[in-house]
Structures are given as C-alpha cells and as structure tokens.
Amino acid sequence: MKKSVAILGATGMVGIRYASMLSDHPLFRVVAVTGSESVGKRYGDAIGSRTGLRISPEVVEMVVSPTRPESIDADLVFSPLPTEAAKSLEPKFAKAGFRVVTDASPHRMEPDVPLVIPEVNPEHLGLIKWQRKKRGWKGFMVATPNCTAAGLALLLKPIHDSVGVERAIVTTLQAVSGAGYPGVPSLDVIDNVIPFIKGEEEKVETEPLKMLGDFRGNRIEHAKFQMSAMCHRVPTTDGHMESAYIETRDQVDIPGLVKELTDFRGVPQRLNLPTAPGRPIIVQDAQDRPQVKLDREAGSVPGMSVVVGRVRRGLTSKSVRLTFVSHNLVRGAAGSTILVAELLHHRGFLE
Amino acid sequence: MKKSVAILGATGMVGIRYASMLSDHPLFRVVAVTGSESVGKRYGDAIGSRTGLRISPEVVEMVVSPTRPESIDADLVFSPLPTEAAKSLEPKFAKAGFRVVTDASPHRMEPDVPLVIPEVNPEHLGLIKWQRKKRGWKGFMVATPNCTAAGLALLLKPIHDSVGVERAIVTTLQAVSGAGYPGVPSLDVIDNVIPFIKGEEEKVETEPLKMLGDFRGNRIEHAKFQMSAMCHRVPTTDGHMESAYIETRDQVDIPGLVKELTDFRGVPQRLNLPTAPGRPIIVQDAQDRPQVKLDREAGSVPGMSVVVGRVRRGLTSKSVRLTFVSHNLVRGAAGSTILVAELLHHRGFLE
Amino acid sequence: MKKSVAILGATGMVGIRYASMLSDHPLFRVVAVTGSESVGKRYGDAIGSRTGLRISPEVVEMVVSPTRPESIDADLVFSPLPTEAAKSLEPKFAKAGFRVVTDASPHRMEPDVPLVIPEVNPEHLGLIKWQRKKRGWKGFMVATPNCTAAGLALLLKPIHDSVGVERAIVTTLQAVSGAGYPGVPSLDVIDNVIPFIKGEEEKVETEPLKMLGDFRGNRIEHAKFQMSAMCHRVPTTDGHMESAYIETRDQVDIPGLVKELTDFRGVPQRLNLPTAPGRPIIVQDAQDRPQVKLDREAGSVPGMSVVVGRVRRGLTSKSVRLTFVSHNLVRGAAGSTILVAELLHHRGFLE
Amino acid sequence: MKKSVAILGATGMVGIRYASMLSDHPLFRVVAVTGSESVGKRYGDAIGSRTGLRISPEVVEMVVSPTRPESIDADLVFSPLPTEAAKSLEPKFAKAGFRVVTDASPHRMEPDVPLVIPEVNPEHLGLIKWQRKKRGWKGFMVATPNCTAAGLALLLKPIHDSVGVERAIVTTLQAVSGAGYPGVPSLDVIDNVIPFIKGEEEKVETEPLKMLGDFRGNRIEHAKFQMSAMCHRVPTTDGHMESAYIETRDQVDIPGLVKELTDFRGVPQRLNLPTAPGRPIIVQDAQDRPQVKLDREAGSVPGMSVVVGRVRRGLTSKSVRLTFVSHNLVRGAAGSTILVAELLHHRGFLE
User: Fold this and answer.
1) What would you report as the CA-atom Rg of chain A, rounded to the nearest whole angstrom?
2) Which residues of D are annotated as catalytic?
3) pLDDT of B52 above 80
4) pLDDT digits (tens, 9 = 90+) for B164-200
C-alpha cells in the first residue's frame, strides 16, 4: 500500500524533477500537484513542452491545486517552493498535520528543524520529536540542504570521520539549472562566467556545519571547522563542480583516503532504499575527471552519486585537494529529498 | 626609425595575435613571419579566414619563412613557438645574435633567463648581462610567463608589497583559446568543465615565485610564499578567470588594499610605453563582477588590464579573497611580450 | 548646433545600444532617457553592470524620466519601446509634436507610416507629409524594420533591382539578443536549437515587401514577390544569420550579381552620413564565411554592414542561393534607426 | 546462437557508439575491434575517458586488432572507417568473404552497392546478388547514408509516397559530433555558426534520390525530384535539425499528411527488429518543437526516431514546410547500420 504524496510548487524546475522521479515510485503515489498561477490547469499544460523528462500519464493529467493545506490530502508533502512562499506556507502545512520535506531554504537553519542527508546524519531526524513538542504541531518539517552544500557535505562526511576537517576552502563552478527556470538569461552566460550567486556562499559556509554536527536530543551542536566558499556560475546546464582545498587535523594518507571515500556507505545503502545509489561517492582516477557532462549522471541511481577525482596532497601533509561533480537537481534537490522521505517511511514517521 | 621584428611561429593562435598587435606599432615594424608547414605561402592564406582581427595588409602579403636564424634578419624576434620547437630553436636564435623575447615555456625557469612582467619585475632584465656572459651569446633570451601566471603575478605584486603574501590558494576557470588552435574539441567543452590542464598547475605554482623574487646580480632569489593551483577549462573563448584565497603576513585592511590595487602603477606606466595600460589593475565594485565577457577587454589598451572584484576578507584578519579576469592572449601572451620588447627598446637593448 | 534627442525605454537591451551609439554623436545630443520601473533612478544604476558598451558619462548620470510627452523636450525621440507600450505611447508623442523614429513593431505596417532602411527606400519618407495631414499631427512617426527583415531587405534590394526577385525562401539562425533581456533562458538554448520565434515569420514575410514597394504619393504599393520564412533561435549572442534560396525573373549571372552586391551604395553613402557604412553589403568569398562571430562587426561602422557569402546558383538558372550575417542590434535595430534620423536631419525634417 | 561481428575503426566517435549499441545485443556478439594507431592496446585504454556511454566489460577488455581481413574472423563487419581508409579497405574485406555494412561515404553511390534505410528501401538489398556476381565477391558491401541524408530520406518517404515530392529545399543546423572527434575546434563554434561543411551538401542532394529510387533487378533508378541543401554547423553536441520547404506533385492536406507521417511504419517495425523504433517518425504538435536537446533521444529506441514539427503549408497549396530533428550518431550512423544488419540477418544473408 503506497503512501500518498503531494508536490507543492510542482510546476517549477525542481517540481518537475520530483514529478518525474516519483512516477512509478515503489513507496509513494502522487495524489496532488500544486501551483500558483497555474491553478486549475492540467499539469501537462502547465509545464508545457520544455522538458525531456518522462512523467507518468496519471500525473500529467492531474489538475493543479492551490498551495493550501485545505486543498490537498496526503501522507507527506514535498516542497520545492520559492523562498518567500516556503517561508510562510510550509509551517502552515506542518501545523495542519502534514509531514513536510522541504528543499527550500528559509527553515533549514532553525534549531529544531533537522537538515538531513540520509547518508550523512540520519540521526538528526530525532529532532522531529522535539520540534513537534515545542511548536505544538501534529505534522513536522524536515529540510534538505542547498544544492551545492549537498554534494559537499556528503563528500566531507567520510573525510571528517577519518582525518578531521579543520578548514575547507571551496570554489564552485555551478550549472544554470541551479537558478531555476527561467533563471539565468542566456545573454549572461554564453561565453561568460559570473563570479557571484546571491545568498549561495552563506549557505555553503554554514549548512555543512549543521549537517556534520552532533545530535544532542533537542538541538544540534554544529561542527567546528572553518568554511570558505567562492561561487561561480558557468555555462553548463546541469551538474555542479566544486574544487576544494581541505586542511585536516591528522596527516592524510591519499590512497587510504581514496579507500575511505570509495568504501563509504550510509544508512540508505544498508536499508537498500529505492533512491539510494549503490555507492554514494564514486572515485574516478583518470586525471581529467570528473567532468560535468560525463559524470553528473554516474552511478546506479543517475544523479545520486557524487563523483570525485584529482584527489591529491595539498601544500602540507595535513591537507588534501580534490574536485567533485554532483547533480544539483537530483542529489542537490529532488533526489535527496525523496531519499529523506523514504527513510522517514522506513522509520514509521508516515504512519 | 622603427626597429625590425620577426614573429616566429606566426601562424598559430598567439602568432596571429602578435601580427595584429604589431600592425601599425609605433616602435616596431614586422619584417618576417615564420612557420613550418606553411613555409612559402602568403601569410594571409596560411592563417585562412578564422580570425576577425585586423592585420596590416603589408603583413598579410608576406611570404612565410622557415624558422631558422639564417632565413631572417631582424633586431628582435618574438617567439610564441610550440614547446618542443621553442626548446631547441630559441637558443639557436639567441646564439646567432638575435634578441629573443619568448612567450613559450621551456626556458622560463632557467636561472639566467629573466622571466618578466614589466610592471612587476623590470629589474630582472639585469640578468641579460650575466646570461650573455655565461652562455657566450651575442643575442639573448627573455621570457614572459604562462597565460594564467601572468595576471596572477601582476595582481599579487601590490598585495605582496603591502601586506606580504604567505600562501595563495588559486582556482582557475580558463578559456579555450589558452589551448591554442585547434586546441580543445568542441565536444569536450560544450555544456562541460574539464578540471585538468596538462602542465598548467606546475607553472602557476612556480612562475610567480620567480617573478616576485629578488634580483641578486647573477641570479633571482625566488619569493618564499606557498602556491596552490587547481586549474579548470570552462566553455569560454577568451579570458581567464581566477579566484584566490590569499593568506598574508600582516592584517589586511580591505579598503586600504583596494586602494593599493587601484593606485598600482609600474615602470611601463611611468615611461608611457605604447602597450602599457593606464591602469594595470582595475577594481570593479559591482558585486557580480568581474565577468569574463564584460571585462576581458577592459582598460585603455584592451586586454592589458587585470580586472579584479569581490575583494573581501577571508576566514581570518590576515587573509583576503578576490576574483579576477585577465585576457590570456593579450596580458597572458602577445601583449605582455610586446610590452617587454618596448621596455627593452627604451633601455637600449635593441641598439 | 546638435539636435536634441530622447531615448524612450532606454533601459532595455536596444535602449542601451542607442545610448552607446548616441554618445558623442556629431549631430545628436541625448537630453532625456525614459523608463517605467526605473523612473527617478540614475541611468547608470538602472542599467546595472550587465553591458560592456561605452556610454558617455553625461548620459550615465541622467535621471530616468517617465515615458510621457509632457516629461521631455527634444527635437526627436527614438523608440525601442516594448510592443504594447509602443502601440499606445508612440502616437501620443507624435500627436504632441514629436518626431518619432521607432524600432518597435506595432505601427510598421500602417499604410501612412514609412517603414524605412535609408539605403533601400529613402523616398518612402515622402509619406510623412500625408501622414501629418491625415492624422492632423504636428509631429510624425517613422518606423524601421524587424531585426531579421532589416538585413534581408537590404540584401534583396540590389538583387531585386537587377534580376527581379520572384520568390525568397529564407531560413534564419537568430541570436538570443534578438529576444531582449532577460529574453531566452539559458536552459532553453545551451546545446539546443528552438525552431520557433513568436511573431517573427509573419514580420519577415511582410515587411520586406513594403520596403521594396513603390511610393505613390499617399501610399506604398507593396512589392509582389513571395516570401517564406522559417525562423530558428540558436546559441549565439549577437548577429543573425540567414540562408536564402531566391528565385528570380531573369537569369542570374553569379559573378555579375556578386559585383552588384559589392558595388551597391545608397543615399546614406552618397551623403556620407555619420552612421553609414562605407559598403552596406560586403561579399566574403572564403567558402566558410560569413560566420556570425567573425563577421557581425565587419565594415567601417561596426554592425552596419551585411556580410554575404556562399553566393551560388540554385536549382535553375533563374535562382541564386546565399548566406548572410547582419548584426541584429545595430543594422537590425539602433543603427538603422539612427541612420534614419540622420537622413531626416539632412532633409530638414528636424527643423 | 548470436552472429559474430567486428567493428572496423572502433576507436572513433561512431565506432564507440557501435561498441555501446552492440553491447548485449540479442542477435550479435562483438568478437573484434580494429584500429590503426591503437593496435595492440586494450580497447578501454584506446578510447580513454571521453565518453559517458556504457560498453560491455567484455568489449572494453578486448585488444585492438589491425584493420586487415586476415586479422579477424566474423560473420559481419561494421565499418565507420574514415573516408580514405574505407575506400581501399572495404572492398578488400568484401572480396575476402566478409559481409560489410558501412557507414562510410566512398562507395555509397556506386551503382551496384545498395544504399539502405530499412524503413525506406529494404528491397534495394536485392542488388547484393548482382554485386557479388559482377565483382566476383564471396562477401558483399551494403552502405547506409550520410547522417543528414538519413533522417531526411526517412521523412521524405511517406511524403513522396502520398503526394509526390517534386522539389525539396533543405537548410540544416548540424551538431558538432557530425564531424567526429576531435572534429570542430571549440574556438570555431562557441557563439558562432559556420555555414559550410565540406562535401555535405553534395551528399544531401544526391543520396536521398538513390534511396527513394526504384530497384530494377541490377540497378537503381534514382528518384527524379530536385534537391537543394544549405548546411550549417551550430553549437550543439548531438542531433541534426533540418528545415525543409517541399514542393509536391499533388495538393497537400496538412492534417492528412500529419497522419501519414504518424502512421508510417516500415519492414523493421513489422519484423519487430531489435533496433527498430516503434514509430520511425514522431510528430510533435507543440509550436516550439522539435528541439535538438529535447527530441534527439525521443522514442522507444533512443535516437532512432525522427521527430518532426511545425508541419504547415508553404506558399502554394502544393507545398509543405516542416522542421525535424534526427540523432546524427544513431539514426544517422550506428543505429541505421545495425538495423540494416538485423534485416540482413532476418533475410538469411548472414548464414
């Protein structure tokens, strides 16, 4: 018996990705899609012809509902709502009894909201109990990270566990789909790089510290290391690349670290959740990999693995440099969030 | 009375840039262009129709000579030869009495070869005397840096002078013209980033240390700070972007440093050399600048100024982060080298 | 004594191009720039940092006025207004006594509005007299064509005059700047072609017939030949390419036709108007030209010449095939319109 | 029992596509891959890391053989050899008893070589008997068309059958992968269009006439209609777009023609061959489709369907205009050729 789910803001770029990934999902059945200007339209007409993704006919034929708790009935709602809408609407849904899993940013850093990557910090879901109690909600709210922070935190996890991250200096080369649709004007990005993405660096410098922090019953003690982010928009469609210079507490043995990355598995892999990739981190040893176009869909669940390469020593023996690619719309958005929902389902949170 | 110059390897991407920048030059007159497979062809036919640059009709009509000392007669030769050819041919030219200014890499790090950016280390030309003596050459060889190292060293100069660079962690986003022509296949770069450029990181990590080093009569004492480079090829045509995290000896006052950068002038500016830009470094304060397409041709001599922006504190008070754009074919190749030749001319080295 | 001009809708993509081309213009002085949401802002702030074009400091410092006749005072207004605004506002300006030269589409095909390319049909300006009489206006309205129709009509002029065009089957490959800013989302155009541009084919199929028509005192008798247009958006920034298969009344002698194209000059060339290119049409004989990037800025006034190549026979002796590039923002917008204003000035219409 | 096949020139762009499409093929088993400079290398090393395609481990581990009949043993050889190599080598293989199915161009227009698209002209395989007799070969040679001609001929087939094509004026917008690897330099194609592809227009203007011609026992009587092709290289990776203006013998009823296109099926569909798409032609009715990125992999066998849209009347009632997208490496190369091999297998030619 599948659980019923709704997609809030389903006509946006990430919303469409949800609709596709939830088509024929073994645990979930989409029962509602919501929008704002498109309310009352057939979903297929609302999203038009701008995607090559496959979406089940059942969803394509749905009529878009308004984004209000009273308009839908579902065991769980996925929220890729725009920031302002998410800020006001998500708490209303949670208060009205919905389990909300959100990819939007406004509530991520609130102390009683778990910010979760299932392979990294599944134990943070323990905050839900406290959140409900404190806010008096029947439902709850769980967040997933920023698209750039998602791949980064996943990659830092085994490094932090083995040699202790003290400082990470990260430079990103981000795809245009990270800005949604219509997003970046083509005139701004053809033959160009823009070294600024509004609000991005702040998120990349804080979210990983929460996710790599320790769960203390009713709060998260953030990790202590330092983060620097310099973010760039480059002319690629999907897939964020990040190059990191990482200083560590302990000496780094490169082959040993490569093995840690390769062998890394998390709770989703042990539970064999439907959207869990076989290997969360894939190490490429060709000297000119990872590449955005060749590696963004790598792995057993396309777009869910982080592909890392050029793993090499930094300027001291307590440092490492590396480059990785992570699919911003899958591991960085819809995929991570669906994986959280699968974990919630397994843990009985959707009963 | 203009000095006569020859362009070796004139049919390559950088060679064509020389031919254009030397058309109607106030101090130099092109008297020969050399090539290998194109020997005997009209220069205009040899370079075909693949450039929009203006080249003087006189040069277009020249017949391509072989790259041999005995085939040409000139006061100075510019060498953008391919690495292997430069390695063997440039010393032959210098031995035969030619003054060689080279943009090629093989001799840059030799102890008696000055590696010069005229705004950064004009005093290193003092090595020429020693070089001639040691090698017994009538001519001499002066080198200019790698296209990525050029803008970087120019930018580091006023920073090093004011607050002392201790470590620079640099990530580059480089244009395809840096690989020459035909260079990067379009299939490799459309909708893609390649995080590897053969030999590039080694050059970026060593050349600035030589250029920012001290001239000690018969040798250069290299600067001592640490350099890390992570190089990426992105889908842009011209203009390298670099983002740097710089640790310093002294506390950094950001407005003060911005003023140092803005006010920086070098010998070429004081001498008012023809190819010297009014301001070697232009500081952009818009939060989304510099951008490759908008800033690569900035300044009074297009392509000769480094445009820097997003100048902000790093993780400690003794650090600064910034992003800059530098035209790889002008400041990073033909422009820098012509500026060196102008300085040599002014100092009487071409008599 | 320069004539005073205002730019309506000056903050759009074409408006900015006007501001740049009118900086330091020998005949015109910009005295006002208008906008809608940006009213009251400094013009430089309103347009932000998204252009590399040079605009005179005097214009940059202007305060944006509302787009109302009572808010400005000028001898002539240039209008690159959006379609809906142009529809209602331009007649108001003309009625209020302004001479309006418009690049917008809504009034182009009205029988008493001259649609003019100065090299093609300067005599159509004769309609102004009739227009003023019929509408009872003190001012008047003159239009310039769609960006794709502009280059096409200019190219067809000497062909029609020499061998008679009977049918033109045109396929276009248009740059994204034709859609304005923000215009085409980058996600829609990276690694893609879109074979549809709303309203474009209708304009390309009708406007040239009006421009190549005959002036009959109080009306234009449209040319009679047939036009087919298939329009495509391709991943280029500036410069529209068009490939045409043209059937003619007379036999086509290709070398003869190439000479007609090369020798073509119009009234602006004879009058030596400031924005008139030396050669309105440049014939490239290299087999792989024209190319968008290499030829869009060709000629003595960058962007004002149409560059044509691959001129060859079609399937019969009464046909010709060719490909050309024309800069959509210059010859296709701001440049053409300024050239019309220069012609109006010469003919005493601005007294 | 699978038939054994070899891939000649397996390290090229199309060769790699064969290796991928033949991995786990139900009828064929790859037993050899050949090359020139890569002879003796492991196939996986020879092709490096530049593709994201999946190739079976068995093939990846093969050692590259020289391209000589005596070096391999197989029931059939696929040849995507470069032109010059194909010219001399393919007849040697056929003479030595191999069944050769070639995607290369040199033998396509020879009178006794069938040039086949299985949905269009399967009966042309009847030439094989005559070819063997005339040339005294034990083996034989069958060709598939140029990548641009393939989609075009497939689309013209149902049109020609229903209303009679009299003239087709075709303009192409071709992807860079059509030029192979390394192929088009990125500097030539970023922000650019090149209106010339060497040899392409001649092929597009002749090959469809042979394929749509009639089999007369020992020769093909070519179709009589006229073809004009104007070919352009645009900045897309895979997928050729073509816009055609078609004049017909009979009046065109657009809805009727759309139905003919939609309902079109060929022998491969009736036989349910493994690589046959369910619908060879897919009609898109959204006004902005087909698009290269969204439609190049459409259909039940990705890349094997031609997607057509914007089907509309031309300038007369006996004409039609349309735009289509066809995957140049699949329907235009490896896919078509494998489909021919499947048909040969079904007809007993591989016994």
Assistant:
1) 19
2) 147, 240
3) no
4) 999 999 999 999 999 999 999 999 999 999 999 999 9
**Shortest Cα distance from B187 to chain D (angstroms)?**
6
**pLDDT < 70: residue spans in chain A:** 50
CATH number, residue B34: 3.40.50.720
Residues B195 and B154 in one domain: yes
User: How many Å from the N-terminal Cα to the C-terminal Cα in chain D?
Assistant: 12
Q: Within an 8 Å CB–CB cutoff, is residue C297 touching chain B?
A: yes
pTM equals 0.96
Domain-located, residue A351: no
Same domain, B164 and B60: no
CA distance C292 to C238: 8
State the maximum Cα–Cα separation within chain B, in Å, rounded to a whole number: 61
B63 and B174 co-located in one domain: no
Q: How many CB pairs under 8 A join B and C?
A: 30
Distance of alpha carbon B152 from the chain centroid? 10
Hey, what are B165's tokens? 């660079």
State the DSSP string of B12-77. SHHHHHHHHHTTT-SSEEEEEEEESTTTTSBHHHHHTT-------HHHHTPBPEES-GGG---SEE
- Report yes or no on C351 lying in a domain: no
Round to the nearest angstrom and report the end-to-end CA distance of chain A: 12
Among residues A147, A160, A327, A345, the one annotated as catalytic is: A147
B245 close contact with D: CB closer than 8 A: no
Give, in order, the Cα–Cα distances in Å from A316 to each of B210, C193, D17: 21, 48, 44
Q: State the pLDDT confidence band at B336, using cuts at 50, 70 and 90.
A: very high
What are the tokens at C212?
């190549």
The answer on D8 and D117 residing in a single domain is yes
Question: For B283-323, how does the pLDDT look when each residue is reduced to its tens digit (9 = 90+)?
Answer: 999 999 999 999 999 999 999 999 999 999 999 999 999 99
B286 to C190: CB separation less than 8 angstroms, yes or no: no
Q: Can C231 be counted among the known catalytic residues?
A: no
Contacts of D194 in chain C (CB under 8 A): 288, 291
* Residue ranges making up the domain that contains A64: 3-146+334-346
Structural domain count of chain C: 2
SS (H, E, C) D129-179: HHHHHHHCCCCEEEECCCHHHHHHHHHHHHHHHHHCEEEEEEEEEECHHHH
C-alpha distances out from residue C45 to B309, C32, C58, Å: 18, 15, 13
The SS3 of residue B345 is: helix
In this predicted structure, the answer to whether residue B109 has a pLDDT above a threshold of 80 is yes
Beta-strand (E) ranges in chain C?
3-7, 28-35, 65-66, 76-79, 99-102, 140-143, 165-174, 214-215, 220-221, 226-233, 240-248, 281-283, 306-313, 319-326
CB–CB of C294 and B48 under 8 A?
no
Residues of B in Cβ contact (< 8 Å) with A226: 315
The DSSP string of A284-350 is --STT---HHHHTT-TTTTT-SEEEEEEEE-SSTTEEEEEEEE-TTIIIIIHHHHHHHHHHHHTTTT
Which of C174, C184, C187 would best serve as a mutation to test chain A binding (most A beta carbons within 10 A)? C187
